[in-house]
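Dear colleague,

Thank you for sharing your sequence with our group. We've completed the structure prediction you requested, and as agreed, I am returning the results in plain text so they can be pasted directly into your records. Please verify that the sequence below matches your submission; if there's any discrepancy, let me know and we will rerun it promptly.
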Amino acid sequence: MSPLPPGLVVLSREGCHLCEDMLLALAELERDGSIPEVKVVDVDSDAELARQFGLKVPVLLLDGSVVCHYTLNSKELLRLVGRSPAIIPR
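Please find the predicted structure tokens below.
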């Protein structure tokens, strides 16, 4: 398995509507400064990633640890990155 970049990483795949939904919600949090930059990795680009996470996409990782999969848990994400979840975008 190729090493994943540090920070926030979304394991995604082309044509995945759940992936698109999560990426849109994360982009909104990024724009308002609530979270650091999110990197996107194609889960199918690595056989080990596909084996480990392929059925769970999208998967949001923070420094390699799973934050959530399928849908974004904004409250948990903001807690983990140390931001107050006072206003959580939909």
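Summary note from our side: Residues 86-90 have pLDDT under 50 and may be disordered.

Kind regards,
the structure core
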